[in-house]
Amino acid sequence: MSAAEGPLVVGVDTSTQSTKALVVDASTGRVVASGQAPHTVSSGAGRESDPRQWWDALGEALRQCGDAAHEAAAVSIGGQQHGLVTLDERGEPVRPALLWNDVRSAPQAARLIEELGGPKAWAERTGSVPGASFTVTKWAWLAEHEPDAVRATKSVRLPHDYLTERLTGQGTTDRGDASGTGWWASATESYDAEILAHVGLDPALLPRVVRPGEVAGTVRDSHDLPFSKGTLVAPGTGDNAAAALGLGLRPGTPVLSLGTSGVVYAVSKHRPADPTGTVAGFADAHGDWLPLACTLNCTLAVDRVAALLGLDREAVEPTSDVTLLPYLDGERTPNLPNASGLLHGLRHDTTGGQLLQAAYDGAVHALLGALDLVLDEDADRSTPLLLIGGGARGRAWQETVRRLSGRPVQVPEAKELVALGAAAQAAGLLTGEDPAAVARRWNTTAGPVLEAVERDEATMARISGVLSDAAPLLAGGH
């Protein structure tokens, strides 16, 4: 490893399936070491993980980084959004964390929307209409189904908060991740006392919201990680806000992330409030806003279809008649938490490759449908769509997004953008820069640009028609 030009920082991505750590040269953005370790997620009706696995995985990922991690001057944690972490008086988990893709709280979400003024009131108040992914609905579910767990809970955290607190000994969060709870008021940028009272959550159980650029704390003595005591700890943030930092996003540039979930977002100077609930009005990690639409079913759902067909994920064939809505785990956009997958238009001459292409089309359809709602009205529609996430380098994903969006598509070569964004946040503590400006200096969006092609309006319209016609069936679940 050649000598670093500047101080070293660590950026962490604690995601649904694993924790990744990057040691980055704060001066150049060069990744000098990396590590990754997996977590387990429950199957069945819920999606849960033991938070202690995240800590163990962080330790293993950092050990893989070797001496470089010990030399780091600052660290930041980016993490999966929405997850409900309940801790007892010793800071130990009361029960496994309820993850963002656990949709058992859909009835509680519907009830809370009705009880507190309807969708428009929620959007104006918190920036978002809560769905089953939001933390407030998970707390309501827990209170209804596991009251003993609620009584044993002495602090409530999000996944990135949990790891940050174990590093510093202090309960903190940031505005980006707090905005995805459903109990943080975007208009006042503070916890909403009325919502908390309504769901029976004492605000004293919640972490302090650290301001952008503020130091959340320093690494304390009592840990087994390769950090020096006194290493600066940045506020951290949710995974999408961290990726936005990692890309150095300016307002108006759209991003489509292809991962376990599919996400489309853009930075905005305007506080969003979509009463339809399609767009979540999240805050970003450095003072602006991050309107965002998210689907539950993306790369994993398409890979599952490919596996059922016995095909490689790239073995697609053009299709014009068959529609596949890959809602294998319910869906968030559109809001159909009880839905399952739906296939329409199957013929004797339909091929497996056409079915697979239909799965890609179905997964991308909802995200692109939300794109215009995510972008400000004055956004330049010719700006390339940044394609990131695990699926971004897949040829079939690239061509599907290109064909259905009608926009130029840019695929950044930088990998692990959530961890890179966390690293940029850590670097900002040392240099005093805006973390997004740090990432722009690192040139993280560099990558090939695929030219725009004519938008496939016919396929978009066909999928919309099937979705509309099947809405009662999909809403009913079984």
UniProtKB/TrEMBL annotation:
<dbReference type="InterPro" id="IPR018483">
    <property type="entry name" value="Carb_kinase_FGGY_CS"/>
</dbReference>
<dbReference type="InterPro" id="IPR018484">
    <property type="entry name" value="FGGY_N"/>
</dbReference>
<keyword id="KW-0418">Kinase</keyword>
<comment type="similarity">
    <text>Belongs to the FGGY kinase family.</text>
</comment>
<dbReference type="GO" id="GO:0004856">
    <property type="term" value="F:D-xylulokinase activity"/>
</dbReference>
<dbReference type="InterPro" id="IPR006000">
    <property type="entry name" value="Xylulokinase"/>
</dbReference>
<feature type="active site" description="Proton acceptor">
    <location>
        <position position="239"/>
    </location>
</feature>
<keyword id="KW-0119">Carbohydrate metabolism</keyword>
<dbReference type="Pfam" id="PF02782">
    <property type="entry name" value="FGGY_C"/>
</dbReference>
<dbReference type="Pfam" id="PF00370">
    <property type="entry name" value="FGGY_N"/>
</dbReference>
<dbReference type="InterPro" id="IPR000577">
    <property type="entry name" value="Carb_kinase_FGGY"/>
</dbReference>
<keyword id="KW-0859">Xylose metabolism</keyword>
<dbReference type="InterPro" id="IPR018485">
    <property type="entry name" value="FGGY_C"/>
</dbReference>
<protein>
    <recommendedName>
        <fullName>Xylulose kinase</fullName>
        <ecNumber>2.7.1.17</ecNumber>
    </recommendedName>
</protein>
<feature type="domain" description="Carbohydrate kinase FGGY N-terminal">
    <location>
        <begin position="9"/>
        <end position="246"/>
    </location>
</feature>
<comment type="function">
    <text>Catalyzes the phosphorylation of D-xylulose to D-xylulose 5-phosphate.</text>
</comment>
<dbReference type="InterPro" id="IPR043129">
    <property type="entry name" value="ATPase_NBD"/>
</dbReference>
<feature type="site" description="Important for activity">
    <location>
        <position position="13"/>
    </location>
</feature>
<keyword id="KW-0808">Transferase</keyword>
<dbReference type="InterPro" id="IPR050406">
    <property type="entry name" value="FGGY_Carb_Kinase"/>
</dbReference>
<feature type="binding site">
    <location>
        <begin position="81"/>
        <end position="82"/>
    </location>
    <ligand>
        <name>substrate</name>
    </ligand>
</feature>
<keyword id="KW-0547">Nucleotide-binding</keyword>
<keyword id="KW-0067">ATP-binding</keyword>
<feature type="domain" description="Carbohydrate kinase FGGY C-terminal">
    <location>
        <begin position="311"/>
        <end position="427"/>
    </location>
</feature>
